[in-house]
Design goal:
Layout lengths: L3 H16 L8 E5 L5 E3 L13 E2 L5 E3 L2 E16 L4 E17 L5 E4 L4 E4 L4 E2 L3 H6 L5 E4 L4 E10 L5 E6 L14 E4 L2
Antiparallel strand pairs: 1-2, 3-5, 4-5, 5-6, 6-11, 7-10, 8-9, 8-12, 12-13
Length: 188
Amino acid sequence: MRNPLLALTGALLAVATMSGCTGTDRGASASPSPTGSPTPAYDLPPRPVRPGEIPVRAAPVIDGETRFQVIGLQKGLSGFFGSHAEWQAKGQYVVVRVVVENTGRTTSHFDAMLQRLVAADGTAHAPNKFAQAIKRQPETFSLGAQVRVEMDLWYDIPKEAKVSAIRLFGDPPLGVTGGTDGVQVPLP
């Protein structure tokens, strides 16, 4: 061997690379991989909720090939300012912050206007198109494979209505025609 030090360095690097030398196991999650070992997880720092927002600690839910997680709620808003307009509610604005994730392997379609806010009396409310537009929240968009988007859904509901839940509708798997049944998440 011409350079034993170079060979030893190469061997040590190979062993360190194959052993996954990370120093800590902070990234491991409780869900095992198909091999039985813990699946690594992203270590994302927590963020403060926005002014007036209530953090929602609901478990993620899946409808079709779309995973949703409700993370924030604002209720009882009488109006708001957008980038170019001020808009008053006919009743009260309720804002639901959601994370939308395509769990499939192909591009899916997300339609914000299908998502329904459910009042305590069972009445389902569609998002308010004007509020969505003024607050620059999309109505529809393509969601790439394994892509996550965090956004607000704005509703204008009667002032006396009490919020109960949100019914979320994802995109069906590729090749399935029609819509999905939706999945309901209770709200505080």
